[in-house]
Fold:
Amino acid sequence: MDTTPTTPSPDPAREKVRKSDAEWRAQLSPEEYQVLRQAGTERPFTGEYWDTHTQGSYRCRACGAELFTSREKFDSHCGWPSFWAPLAEDAVVYLHDRTLGMERIEVRCATCDSHLGHVFEGEGYATPTDQRYCINSISLTLVPDEG
Structure:
């Protein structure tokens, strides 16, 4: 997987969601808005999905785009939901994040450009990609598998 930061690019197969700041504020709770639209971070071990093992798909809380599945979720014990890969590479985009004095790769929803979290490499997790998509629970909605 190439985590070279990219900006969202037009994809004819994926219809982009574009809303004004006022529309996002009306749709999202203040906490959701702060993370999804202002690139905030929820406190570790407080989000609803950090320790969830329910089978299903994880969707963007802002636009509903399917981003991750429980098949790629793993226990990293970092306090946020962790995935070793997105559902599809075009589901997310990557941006350089130099805030807080660190060099990180930010992960955003490719459909609505909402902040999801960050991706880290080379941490030694026993996953197929050696990557950890560290995603804020508040950025996601879990849709359980039927049955």
The helical segments are 21-27, 30-36. DSSP finds two helices and nine strands in the chain. The radius of gyration is 14 Å.
